[in-house]
Write a structure and sequence with these properties.
alpha+beta; Double-stranded beta-helix; 6 helices; globular
Length: 283
C-alpha cells in the first residue's frame, strides 16, 4: 500500500521495515499516523524506529494506542513503575541473554501477546543485534503434503526451559535480581499453524524456546517433526537482522514472526524496556 503520513523503508526482502517521519514522544500522535504504523506492522511484521526519546510514560502511552497492554505478574513488575513495563537488563558480568533462542513472545500463555514494543536505553558498542523471521513465508514454503500433515496438529508450549535455565543461574531474569523466585510453570496448547486474525494469512506457530511437544505425543515422538520445523522456520531467506542504537524502537507482530537475541557482547551492558499489546487465542 502507499503511505501518506509516514515513510516506510523495507530492510530486507522477507521481513522488516524502518519507519521515518514520526516522533513517538508526541503526546497526541494523529490517528491516521497510528493507523499507518499499524498497517506497516501488518505488512512487514516488524517495524523499526531510530532516534526516539522515550521515557516509560511515552513508551506505555505509545503502546496503548494499539490496544490494551498486558500487565506483568507481580514478581516481574518494577516497584514504582508501570505494571505493564518489563526491564531487560543484561549486565557486563552476565554470560547469557534473555530470549537466546528463536521464539514468539509468551506463546506459553493461553492468549499470547499481539505484539511487543522494545526500546533501547543502553546498547553495547557492537553486537547485541536481534534477528526476526517471517512465519508466513515459512508456512508458504512448505510442500502441500507437509501443509496437509500439519493441518489440525496441536503443540504444547511451556516456559519450562526458561525456568530450568534461570534455576541454573545461566541467564539473568529480567527486572530485579531476585524475581526468579516468583516464576511458576505455565503451559498452553496452540495449533502448529495459526491464521492471523487481521490478515487471514496462515503462519507457522512453533518455536524452539517454548514448544515442548506435540499434543498426545511424547517428547521423543515429537522431536523429528519439531526439529525439522525449528530449522525450516528460521531459514536465512525468511529473516532480517536489526542493529540497535540508543533510542531505537522495534515493534513486532508475535502472531506472524519469531525473533532471537544474539549473545555476542560479553562484558558489555544492554538495557531495554518493553511493553506488550494483549492478543487473542491462536486459531
Amino acid at each position: 500500500m502507499s503511505y501518506k503520513h509516514i515513510e516506510v523503508k523495507p530492510v530486507s526482502g522477507a521481513i522488516g521495515a524502518e519507519i521515518h517521519g514520526v516522533d513517538l514522544s508526541q503526546e497526541n500522535i494523529e490517528q491516521p499516523v497510528v493507523d499507518e504504523i499499524r498497517q506497516a506492522l501488518l505488512d512487514y511484521l516488524v517495524i523499526f524506529f531510530h532516534g526516539q526519546a522515550m521515557d516509560d510514560d511515552v513508551l506505555v502511552r505509545f503502546g496503548r494506542r494499539f490496544g490494551e497492554l498486558a500487565a506483568l505478574p507481580p514478581h516481574r513488575q518494577v516497584p514504582g513503575s508501570y505494571p505493564e513495563l518489563l526491564v531487560i537488563d543484561k549486565k557486563p558480568e552476565d554470560t547469557m541473554v534473555f530470549g537466546w533462542e528463536w521464539h514468539s513472545d509468551t506463546s506459553h500463555l493461553e492468549t499470547p501477546s499481539l505484539g511487543s514494543i522494545l526500546y533501547a536505553k543502553i546498547v553495547p558498542p557492537s553486537g547485541g543485534d536481534t534477528l526476526f523471521a517471517n512465519q508466513y513465508l515459512a508456512y508458504d514454503a512448505l510442500s502441500d503434503g507437509m501443509k496437509s500433515m500439519l493441518d489440525g496438529l496441536v503443540a504444547v508450549h511451556a516456559n519450562g526451559r526458561i525456568l530450568r535455565t534461570l534455576a541454573e543461574g545461566e541467564i539473568p531474569p529480567p527486572g530485579t535480581e531476585s524475581e526468579s523466585a516468583g516464576w511458576s510453570e505455565m503451559s498452553a496448547e496452540h495449533p502448529l499453524v495459526r491464521t492471523h486474525p487481521e490478515t487471514g494469512r496462515k503462519a507457522l506457530y512453533v518455536n524452539e524456546l517454548h514448544t515442548e511437544r506435540l499434543k498426545d505425543m511424547t517428547v521423543d515422538e515429537s522431536q523429528p517433526l519439531l526439529q525439522f520445523l525449528y530449522k525450516h522456520s528460521s531459514r536465512p531467506e525468511f529473516t532480517c537482522r536489526f542493529q540497535w542504537q540508543v533510542g531505537s524502537v522495534a515493534f513486532w507482530d508475535n502472531r506472524s514472526s519469531m525473533h532471537l537475541a544474539l549473545n555476542d557482547y560479553q562484558g558489555q551492558r544492554r538495557l531495554m524496556h518493553r511493553v506488550q499489546v494483549k492478543g487473542d487465542c491462536p486459531v
